[in-house]
Design a protein that fits this description.
The complex is a heterodimer of chains A (1386) and B (100).
Chain A: H1 3-8, H2 20-27, H3 44-55, E1 60-64, E2 69-72, H4 74-81, H5 93-96, H6 101-114, E3 120-127, E4 134-146, E5 152-161, H7 163-178, H8 188-200, E6 209-214, E7 220-226, E8 238-239, H9 250-254, E9 260-262, E10 282-290, E11 293-302, H10 311-379, H11 385-415, E12 424-426, H12 428-445, E13 449-454, E14 461-463, H13 465-481, E15 487-495, E16 498-505, H14 539-549, E17 553-559, E18 563-571, H15 596-605, H16 611-618, H17 626-630, E19 637-641, H18 645-657, E20 661-665, H19 668-678, E21 682-686, H20 694-703, E22 712-716, H21 721-730, E23 734-737, H22 742-772, E24 776-780, E25 786-789, H23 791-797, H24 820-835, E26 838-846, E27 852-863, E28 870-878, H25 880-901, H26 905-920, E29 924-930, E30 937-940, H27 952-962, E31 970-972, E32 976-983, E33 986-993, H28 1002-1040, E34 1049-1054, E35 1065-1071, E36 1077-1083, H29 1089-1108, H30 1112-1125, E37 1133-1140, E38 1145-1151, E39 1156-1159, E40 1165-1168, E41 1172-1173, E42 1187-1190, E43 1196-1200, H31 1202-1205, H32 1212-1225, H33 1231-1242, E44 1252-1258, E45 1263-1268, H34 1274-1288, H35 1292-1312, ...
Parallel strand pairs in A: 13-15, 19-20, 19-21, 21-22, 22-23, 38-41
Antiparallel strand pairs in A: 1-2, 1-5, 3-4, 4-5, 6-7, 6-11, 7-8, 9-10, 10-11, 12-14, 15-16, 16-18, 17-18, 24-25, 24-28, 26-27, 27-28, 29-30, 29-33, 31-32, 32-33, 34-44, 35-36, 36-37, 37-38, 38-42, 39-40, 39-43, 43-44, 45-46, 46-47, 47-49, 48-49
Chain B: E1 5-11, E2 17-25, H1 30-43, E3 49-59, H2 61-69, E4 74-78, H3 83-89, H4 91-94, E5 96-99
Parallel strand pairs in B: 2-3, 3-4, 4-5
Antiparallel strand pairs in B: 1-2
Helix pairs in contact in B: 1-2
The chains are: A alpha+beta (1386), B alpha/beta (100).
InterPro entries (chain B): STAS_dom, STAS_dom_sf
Organism (chain B): Actinoplanes regularis
Pfam families (chain B): STAS (PF01740)
Chain lengths: 1386, 100
C-alpha cells in the first residue's frame, strides 16, 4: 500500500484490514459519496459483516444499504467478477450486474422484503465479464443482513460457479449417446439417422450440423443434417469440386483440413440459432477420417456463440466427427461382407438344387445297377478274384452314390422347408449310447479305443429320432474316418438348459484356417490323411442343418495332429420348437433311419479279417454279402408274409442262414394272427397279397397294442417314392423295393431289429414283467374291450391273446339265458369297471372249457400316455376255492343260526328251507317227510303247499328221492336238485327248485350234501329239545293252576321270566264239595324257576287245605305252618276266599296281599281290604282274621298280584285306583274281554316286568245247560234259567220275557230237531252289568218247510223278537244258533 | 218230565162256565191244554167260556195257539205276568180279558 493511498484511505478504514488486495481496493472507495457514508460512521453490524466477507475464502459478495452497495471478497473476484474489478466495488449492485439484474433483482427484493434466504443451483446467467455474453452457471444463496437495530438492510451472497461442470457433462452425454448404438451392425443410412438423432439432442454445443460424404469424384453429398431444415442454403444437397464460392471449403476438407468458417455471407442468412437467442457466428468443419485413405466426408458443426472455442470445445467436435467416421466404416464393411455371404449362399443353393435334381434322376439307374451287381456278386462268388474285386468296386461305389443321393435329398427337403421333423421326448443318453454301440465293433476293429461317457439327463430332449441318428452316425463315421491312433470318445451331459453331446477323436485334426469352412457344403479338406478318399463333403453340413432344425448348435474344436471334438448343444424343453410339433414319446412312429450304411461304409474302410472267409463257408447257399458277416451278429424271430411260395422259401432260407428264426405265412391275415400269438421281433411282408395286403396288415398291427411296436419291413415290386411313403405312412418301419439284394435285406433286418430292440427294450421288459405276474392282468379300452392280457389271464380263463381284443360282452361272461343271475353280477361289475376310476369286485366267470370260476378283480383307470385316451388296467385272481369256502362257511353259519333260534321242528324246518332258498336263489324249496301218516308231511317255502297240491312231477321227484341213499345229491337239469336226509319223524326228501337259468354245479352239490348233513343233525337235536321243552311246559302248566275254571271266571297269567311259562305268582279256583268255590291268588317272593317251584307247592298245599276246611283264615294259618318247612315260601302273600256262587257271598282272608276289587252294576266299587294280616310264614303262631262280602248280581270281582299294579315311583294305591277304574269302566264288558282289557290297560310301556296273575269273576257265573231236544226238558230248563235270572238280579217282568224268549228258542229247537234221533240243545246265558245274552244252539238237522198246522211257531219267533232287544237266527248244516240279547234296566 | 199243569173246569160265581189253569203251559202239555179247552168250550154251549189263567206261571206260543183257536168263545182272566204276552201276541185284541 502506498503512502498516497494511505492518505486517501478514509478514517476507520481498518475495517478492510483483513481483505488483502481487495481490502485495500475497498479502502480506496470514496465511501462518502455512497449512501453508506465514511466507514468510521458505519454501524457495527456492517463492519462485522464486511470483515466476515473479507476473511472468507469462499466466493461471496454483499449488497448493503438503500442502493445495495456492492462488496465482494477475493475468491469472488477471481471466479466470477472478471473484468468488472475493481470498478464494481462500492457501486450499486443493480449497476454492477445490470446484464443479469432481471434474473437476480427479484430474488434480492424477496430476501429484503421477507427476510428469507434464497437458493439456486446451476442457474444459467449470461455474464458479460469477458467482453461478450458468456454462458455461465452458478449455484448461490442470498441471505438477509440486519442492521444494529435488527432491521433488514442488505443481503449476503455465497456463490460457486458451475460453468465447466455443466458444459462438460452436456458434451459427455452427447458422446455417450453416440456410442450407445444398440445394434451391432447396420447400414450407412441407419447409422447416420441414429447419429443425427443424438447430435440433434444437443443444440447448445451444436446449434446445427451437417454431414457430407464424398463421392468418387470428390464431390460432396449431404447425408444428414441436424438443427437446420433440409434445403437451407447453408446446407446444399451437394457441393461440387470447383465451385467458385462453395458454402463449405470442399477441396480443403478433402485434404483433411479442419477449417473454422465464419458464418457470414448470403448462404448463412437466417440460419437457425439452435437453443440460443441468437444464431451462431462460426462453424468448425471436421473431416470424417478414413484409415489410410481419403476422408469419407466432413462434419459441419455450428459453434455455440456464448462459449469460447477452447481446447475442450474443439476436442468435443473432433470426437463427434470420429464417431461418425467409425460408424460409416463399420456400416460399409458390413455391407461388403453381407454381399459376399449372399453370393456364396446363392452358389451353394444352386449347387444343392442341381444335385438334388439330378439325384432323383440318379436313383433309378442306381437301383438298376445295384440290383444286377448284387445278383452278380452272389452268382460269381466263386469266380475269378479279379472279377470279384471289380464287382466289389462297382458295388461299393454304388452304395456310396446311393448314400450321397439320399443325403442330397435330405438337403433339398431342408431347403424347401419340407423336412418334416417329428419331435418327441427322447432319453438322449440312452438313444446316443445305443447309436454309439452300433459303431463299437467297427471302431474296435480299426484298433481304436471307444469310450462312451454318458450321464443321465434331468429331462428328455425333444428330438426327431431319424434326424438325430443321422447326426450321431455322421459324427462317428467322420471320427473313424480321420482317426488312426488313440480312440474316439462320445459323451453326453447336461449343462445349464442344454444337453451337450461331444464326439471327440484323436485323429488328424483340422488346420486352423480350415476351421471356418468345416461345415460348408461340398467343402473337403484336401491333402489330409484319411481312411478313405470317399466323401462328398456334405456329411458335416447335413449335421449342422439337422442340429439347426432342433434349434441346437454344433461347434468344432480341433488341432492338427491332436484330434477334433465336435460339441452339439440341444436345448431342453419344447419352447424352442415350432408350436404343436412336439409329440408324445412313441417308439413306433418315428421313421426309421438305418445305421447300417454308415457302419458298412466304415467297415469298408477297414482291412478285411481272416475270419470272414470262415463265416462265408458256413452259409454257402446264402448269397450274403461280406458286410453281413462282418457286422455284429444279430438274430431274431422273423415272420415272413408273402403269397409267392418261391419268395417265401428264398426269404426263409436267406434269413435262416443269417441265424434268424423264421416263420412263414401266405397272407396278411395269417401274418396278423401269427404276430399276435408268436410276437415276432420283425415282420417282413410283401405289399401285394391276397386276403389282407401288406398295408392293411401294417394298419392292423399298429392298431393292436400287442403288435403296435413290432417293426415291419415291407417288400414291394412297386417302385417309386410314393409307394414307399404310402407304406411308411401306414406305419411300416422300412421299405424295400424288389428286386433287392440279399445283403441289403439282411442289413435292414438287422438294423430294424436292433433299433426296435433299442426302442422297445422297455416295452419288452414290461411285457416280461406282466407275463411273470401270477395274477391275471388285463387292459381295457374306454368301451371295456379287453385289449391286452398276460399269460396268467390265459391260464385262469383259457382265453388267449390270439383273439384279442375281447369286446364286451366278453366270452367269459356267464350265459345270459341259462345263468342269468351270474350274468347280471358280471354286468353289474362291468358297469363298475367302466363307470368308476377304481374299484374291485368278485364275479363268477366261465372258463373257455365251460367250468365256473370265481375271480376277484381290482382295477384302476389310467391315461394312456401315448394316445391320451382313458384305459382301464386291472388284475384278478382265481378265488374259486376261496369263494366256495366262504359260501360254505356262511351257509353253514346261517343254517346253524336258524336251527339254534328255532323253538321246534316245524320252525326249524321252515327256517332251513328259507335259508336254502336264499342261498341258491331257488324258486321254491320243498321238504317231504315220509313219516307214519298216509301222505308225506310237506313243509315248503310256500306255506300253503301240501302233498295233495304238489305238482305230479314234484311228487314223483320227492318219491324218487326217498329211495336214494342218504345225503347223495341228485341234480335234474333245468329243474333243480334234491337230497335225502334223516328227519326225526322219518326219511325226508328235500327238493330245491331252480329256474332253468340257474345251473347246479358240482360245487353246489358238494355244498348241498354238506348242508343236508348239518340239517339232519340239527333237526334231530331240535326234536330232542322239543321233547324236553314240551315236558317242561306240561310240568309248568301242572303247577300253574286249574286247567278248567268254574263258569264266570277269567284269568290271566304273565310270567316275568321267559321262556318259562310259570313264575312266583299264582291263581287257583277250587270247586268245593258244597258247591262253593275256593278262590286263591298268591305271590311268592321273587320270580323265575326257583319262585315257581315254591309257588307250585304253596298252591297245592293251599288247594288241599281248602278242600279240607273251607275257611280262608284256617287255610292261611295252616299255610303259615307249611311255609315254615318250605324254603323260600316265607313272606309269600296270599288272598284266599270262598265264594258261594248261588248268593254271591264271599268269605275271605288276606295274607299281606293287595285288596281284591269289586265293581257293582250301579258303578259302586269296593276294596276287599278287611280280614287282612301278615304275609305267609311270618308269624305262624298268630291267628288270622276273616271278612265277608256279598256280591250283588252282575257285580265284578278282581283278584290280582302286585305285578299288575306296582310301578316304580308310584304309591301302590295309585295302581289300585287304576285297577279299580278299569274294573268300574269294564263292568259292562264280558269278563274274558275284560281280562284282556285290564291286562292291556295296566301294562307298563315296556310290558310287565314282574310276574302277574289276574283273576276275574262276575256274579253269577254264566248259565250253561245242555239237554236233549225233548219237550219234557223244557220245564227244568226253565227252572234253572229262572233261578239264574234271579241270581243275576233281573226284575220278574223282564225275567218272564227272557223265559218266554228262551222257551220259544228251545221249543223251536225241539220242534225242528230230529225227532227220531233227538239232538242236543245247549243254552248259554251270561250277564254283564246291564246286558243279558242268551244263546241257544242245537245240532239237529232241520226239517223241511213247516206245515201250516204249526203256524203258531211263527208266534214263537215274533215273541222272541218282541221280548228281546236283539235276536239273530243263524241256520247252518250243523244246526241253528239263536242269539238273543236283552238290556237290563236297573 | 212234563211241566206241571192242573186244569179245572167249573163255573164262575156268576154262573159263567170256566176253565181254571194252574202251572205252566208249554210245548210239552199244550196238546192236553188244547183238548181240555176244546172240551170245555164245547160244553159251555153258547156261553163264553172264562179261561182263568191267573195261576199260570208260564205260557208259550203253543198254549197261545190253543187259545187263538177258541178266541170267539172264550174270555180270559189274566195276571200282570201274562199281560205283555197276550198283548204282544194280539190275543188281547180278539178276546175279552179280565184282569184280576
Amino acid at each position: 500500500m502506498s503512502s498516497s493511498e494511505q492518505q486517501r484511505a478514509s478514517p476507520g478504514a481498518d475495517v478492510f484490514a483483513a481483505g488483502g488486495e481487495v481490502g485495500r481496493d475497498l479502502a480506496t472507495v470514496d465511501w462518502a459519496a455512497t449512501p453508506l457514508g465514511p466507514p468510521e460512521g458505519w454501524p457495527q453490524s456492517l463492519r462485522t459483516t464486511v470483515s466476515i466477507l473479507l476473511s472468507s475464502r469462499f466466493p461471496m459478495w454483499m449488497a448493503w444499504g438503500p442502493q445495495l452497495t456492492f462488496f465482494c471478497n477475493a475468491a469472488y473476484r477471481r471466479d466470477t467478477l472478471g473484468g468488472k474489478y475493481p470498478w464494481a466495488l462500492g457501486r450499486p449492485a443493480s449497476e454492477v450486474w445490470a446484464e443479469i439484474w432481471d434474473d437476480i433483482g427479484p430474488r434480492i427484493a424477496t430476501v429484503l422484503s421477507t427476510g428469507e434466504a434464497t437458493w439456486d443451483e446451476g442457474l444459467l446467467l449470461f455474464l458479460e465479464r469477458s467482453g461478450y455474453p458468456e454462458e455461465s452457471y452458478h449455484t448461490f444463496s442470498y441471505s438477509p443482513v440486519r442492521d444494529d437495530d435488527g432491521s433488514l438492510v442488505g443481503m449476503l451472497c455465497v456463490v460457486s460457479e458451475d460453468t465447466e461442470r455443466v458444459i462438460g457433462e452436456r458434451r459427455m452425454a452427447t458422446l455417450r449417446d453416440l456410442g450407445s448404438d444398440p445394434s451391432v451392425v447396420r447400414t450407412e443410412q441407419e447409422m447416420l439417422a441414429f447419429t443425427s438423432q443424438q447430435l440433434g439432442n444437443n443444440l447448445r454445443d451444436l446449434p446445427f450440423t451437417a454431414t457430407y460424404l464424398f463421392d468418387d469424384n470428390g464431390n460432396a453429398r449431404l447425408a444428414a443434417a441436424t438443427g437446420i431444415p433440409a434445403g437451407h442454403p447453408a446446407v446444399p444437397d451437394s457441393l461440387t469440386v470447383g465451385d467458385p464460392c462453395p458454402a463449405w471449403p470442399v477441396e480443403a476438407l478433402a485434404r483433411g483440413e479442419s477449417p473454422l468458417v465464419d458464418l457470414t455471407g448470403t448462404p448463412f442468412d437466417g440460419i437457425p440459432a439452435g437453443d440460443w437467442p441468437h444464431p451462431p457466428t462460426q462453424a468448425l468443419v471436421m473431416p470424417l477420417v478414413q484409415q489410410g485413405s481419403a476422408p469419407y466426408g466432413f462434419l459441419v458443426a455450428a459453434l455455440n456463440r456464448y462459449r469460447p472455442l477452447d481446447d475442450s470445445y474443439r476436442g468435443f467436435i473432433e470426437l463427434t466427427a470420429g464417431h461418425v467416421a467409425t460408424g460409416i466404416a463399420s456400416a460399409r464393411s458390413y455391407q461388403a461382407q453381407q454381399r459376399r455371404a449372399e453370393d456364396l449362399a446363392e452358389l451353394d443353393r444352386a449347387k444343392t438344387a442341381f444335385f438334388s435334381n439330378i439325384s432323383h434322376e440318379f436313383r433309378t439307374p442306381l437301383t438298376l445297377i445295384m440290383g444286377p451287381v448284387d445278383e452278380l456278386r452272389g452268382r460269381l462268388a466263386d469266380a475269378d478274384p479279379q472279377i470279384r474285386d471289380e464287382l466289389e468296386i462297382i458295388h461299393r461305389n454304388g452304395l456310396r452314390l446311393g448314400k450321397l443321393v439320399n443325403t442330397l435329398l435330405d438337403f433339398s427337403r431342408i431347403e424347401a422347408g419340407r423336412m418334416q421333423a417329428h419331435y418327441e421326448p427322447v432319453d438322449l443318453s440312452a438313444a446316443t449310447t445305443d447309436l454309439a454301440s452300433v459303431f463299437r465293433s467297427a471302431i474296435s476293429r480299426a484298433g481304436l479305443t471307444f469310450e462312451v461317457d454318458v450321464r443321465p439327463l434331468p429331462e428328455p430332449v425333444y428330438l426327431d429320432r431319424g434326424m438325430w441318428e443321422k447326426v450321431v452316425l455322421n459324427l462317428l463315421s467322420n471320427a473313424l474316418k480321420f482317426t488312426f491312433d488313440g480312440g474316439i470318445r462320445v459323451s453326453v451331459s447336461a449343462e445349464d438348459r442344454y444337453a451337450v453331446i461331444t464326439v471327440a477323436d484323436t485323429g488328424v485334426g483340422v488346420a486352423e484356417h480350415e476351421m471356418p469352412r468345416l461345415f460348408e457344403r461340398f467343402h473337403r479338406i484336401e491333402n489330409v490323411r484319411s481312411r478313405s478318399n470317399e466323401g462328398s463333403g456334405i456329411g458335416l453340413a447335413l449335421v449342422q442343418e439337422l442340429v439347426g432344425l432342433h434349434r441346437g448348435t454344433i461347434v468344432a474344436d480341433s488341432a492338427v495332429g491332436k484330434g477334433t471334438t465336435f460339441t452339439v448343444r440341444l436345448p431342453f424343453g419344447t419352447a424352442h420348437l415350432p408350436k404343436d410339433t412336439p409329440a408324445p414319446a412313441n417308439v413306433n412312429s418315428a421313421p426309421p433311419a438305418s445305421a447300417d450304411p454308415f457302419v458298412q461304409e466304415a467297415l469298408r474302410w477297414l482291412p478285411a479279417q481272416a475270419g470272414d472267409e470262415d463265416v462265408r463257408e458256413q452259409s454257402p447257399q446264402a448269397p450274403a454279402a461280406e458286410s453281413d458277416q462282418r457286422a455284429p451278429n444279430v438274430t431274431a424271430s422273423v415272420l415272413v408274409a408273402d403269397d409267392n411260395a418261391d419268395m417265401r422259401d428264398y426269404l426263409a432260407r436267406l434269413l435262416g442262414s443269417a441265424g434268424h428264426r423264421v416263420a412263414v405265412v401266405g397272407d396278411g391275415q395269417a401274418a396278423l394272427e401269427a404276430a399276435r400269438t408268436g410276437n415276432p421281433e420283425l415282420i417282413i411282408s410283401d405289399v401285394m397279397m391276397p386276403v389282407m395286403d401288406g398295408l392293411q396288415l401294417v394298419a392292423a398291427l399298429r392298431g393292436d397294442p400287442r403288435t403296435a411296436g413290432t417293426p415291419v419291413l415291407l417288400l414291394s415290386a412297386r417302385a417309386g417314392q410314393e409307394a414307399a411313403i404310402e407304406g411308411l405312412e401306414a406305419g411300416a418301419d422300412d421299405y424295400l423295393f424288389k428286386p433287392f439284394s440279399a445283403a441289403e435285406l439282411l442289413a435292414r433286418v438287422r438294423a430294424n431289429v436292433e433299433l426296435s430292440r433299442l426302442r422297445t427294450g422297455h416295452a419288452r421288459w414290461r411285457t416280461a414283467l406282466i407275463d411273470s405276474l401270477q395274477e391275471a392282468f388285463f387292459v381295457c379300452d374306454e368301451d371295456g374291450a379287453v385289449i391286452e392280457i398276460n399269460t396268467a389271464f390265459t391260464d385262469i380263463l383259457g382265453f388267449g391273446p390270439e383273439d384279442l381284443p375281447y369286446a364286451p360282452i366278453h366270452p367269459w361272461w356267464p350265459d345270459a339265458v341259462t345263468d342269468s343271475d351270474a350274468h347280471q353280477q358280471v354286468a353289474d361289475a362291468f358297469a363298475l369297471l367302466t363307470g368308476h376310476t377304481h374299484g374291485s369286485y368278485t364275479i363268477p366267470v366261465t372258463h373257455r372249457d365251460g367250468h365256473r370260476l370265481w375271480a376277484s378283480a381290482a382295477f384302476n383307470q389310467v391315461q394312456d400316455p401315448d394316445s391320451g385316451r382313458r384305459v382301464i388296467v386291472g388284475t384278478f385272481r382265481d378265488v374259486t376255492a376261496e369263494h366256495y369256502t366262504v359260501q360254505r362257511e356262511s351257509a353253514l353259519a346261517a343254517l346253524g343260526l336258524r336251527l339254534s333260534r328255532s323253538e321246534n321242528l316245524t320252525d326249524a324246518l321252515s327256517g332251513v328251507l328259507a335259508e336254502l332258498r336264499d342261498l341258491w336263489q331257488a324258486s321254491d324249496v320243498v321238504a317231504s317227510v315220509f313219516d307214519t301218516s298216509t301222505d308225506p308231511t310237506v313243509t315248503a317255502t310256500d306255506p300253503a303247499l301240501r302233498w295233495e297240491n304238489l305238482s305230479e312231477r314234484r311228487r314223483q321227484a320227492l318219491l324218487g328221492l326217498r329211495d336214494k341213499p342218504l345225503l347223495t345229491p341228485v341234480t335234474e337239469r333245468s329243474s333243480g336238485a334234491g337230497i335225502t336226509l334223516e328227519h326225526p319223524h322219518g326219511t325226508m326228501a328235500l327238493w330245491i327248485g331252480l329256474g332253468p337259468a340257474r345251473p347246479f354245479t358240482e360245487q353246489d352239490e358238494t355244498l348241498l350234501a354238506l348242508l343236508a348233513g348239518h340239517i339232519g343233525q340239527g333237526l334231530r337235536r331240535i326234536a330232542q329239545i322239543d321233547q324236553q321243552r314240551e315236558t317242561a311246559l306240561a310240568l309248568q302248566r301242572a303247577i300253574l293252576g286249574p286247567a278248567q275254571l268254574p263258569s264266570g271266571f277269567a284269568v290271566r297269567y304273565e310270567p316275568a321270566t321267559r321262556p318259562l311259562k310259570v313264575g312266583g305268582d299264582w291263581y287257583d279256583t277250587i270247586e268245593l264239595p258244597d258247591g262253593r268255590i275256593g278262590i286263591v291268588v298268591g305271590d311268592c317272593v321273587g320270580h323265575g324257576l326257583r319262585a315257581a317251584t315254591v309257588m307250585g307247592q304253596l298252591r297245592s298245599a293251599c288247594r288241599a287245605l281248602l278242600l279240607q276246611d273251607a275257611s280262608p283264615a284256617i287255610t292261611l294259618r295252616a299255610l303259615d305252618r307249611f311255609a315254615a318247612l318250605l324254603p323260600g315260601a316265607t313272606c309269600a302273600t296270599v288272598f284266599c276266599g270262598v265264594l258261594d256262587p248261588e248268593t254271591g257271598h264271599l268269605r275271605y282272608s288276606s295274607a299281606g296281599h293287595p285288596p281284591a276289587i269289586i265293581a257293582d252294576t250301579d258303578g259302586t266299587t269296593h276294596l276287599l281290604d278287611q280280614g287282612r294280616s301278615h304275609p305267609i310264614g311270618v308269624r305262624p303262631s298268630l291267628s288270622r282274621p276273616e271278612a265277608e262280602h256279598t256280591m250283588p248280581g252282575r257285580a265284578t270281582l278282581l283278584l290280582y298280584t302286585d305285578g299288575l299294579i306296582e310301578r316304580r315311583r308310584q304309591p301302590l294305591t295309585t295302581g289300585i285306583e287304576r285297577a279299580t277304574a278299569a274294573i268300574h269302566d269294564g263292568r259292562g264288558t264280558p269278563i274274558e274281554q275284560l281280562a284282556t282289557d285290564v291286562m292291556a290297560k295296566l301294562a307298563p310301556a315296556g310290558g310287565y316286568d314282574d310276574d302277574v296273575a289276574l283273576l276275574l269273576y262276575r256274579q253269577p257265573g254264566p248259565l250253561e245247560l245242555e239237554f236233549p231236544a225233548e219237550a219234557t226238558r223244557l220245564a227244568p230248563v226253565r227252572t234253572a234259567l229262572r233261578g239264574w235270572l234271579n241270581r243275576v238280579g233281573v226284575d220278574p217282568a223282564t225275567a218272564q220275557k227272557v223265559l218266554i224268549a228262551a222257551g220259544e228258542a228251545c221249543s223251536n229247537a225241539i220242534e225242528h230237531g230230529h225227532r227220531d234221533n233227538p239232538g242236543r240243545i245247549r243254552l248259554h246265558a251270561a250277564a254283564t252289568a246291564d246286558d243279558l245274552r242268551l244263546t241257544v244252539v242245537d245240532n239237529g238237522r232241520w226239517k223241511p218247510a213247516q206245515s201250516p198246522a204249526n203256524s203258531h211257531r211263527g208266534h214263537g219267533l215274533a215273541l222272541m223278537k218282541a221280548f228281546m232287544n236283539h235276536v239273530t237266527v243263524t241256520t247252518g248244516t250243523a244246526g241253528t244258533v239263536i242269539d238273543m240279547q236283552a238290556r237290563i234296566v236297573p | 218230565m212234563t211241566s206241571t199243569l192242573t186244569l179245572t173246569a167249573g163255573h164262575r160265581p156268576d154262573g159263567a162256565p170256566s176253565l181254571t189253569a194252574v202251572g205252566e203251559i208249554d210245548m210239552s202239555n199244550a196238546e192236553t191244554f188244547a183238548t181240555v179247552l176244546a172240551d170245555a168250550v164245547h160244553r159251555s154251549e153258547k156261553k163264553p167260556l172264562v179261561v182263568d189263567l191267573t195261576a199260570v206261571e208260564y205260557l208259550d206260543s203253543a198254549g197261545l195257539a190253543a187259545l187263538f183257536e177258541h178266541a170267539e168263545h172264550i174270555e180270559l182272566l189274566s195276571s200282570p205276568l201274562l199281560e205283555p204276552l197276550l198283548t204282544v201276541s194280539g190275543l188281547a185284541d180278539l178276546v175279552t180279558i179280565h184282569s184280576q
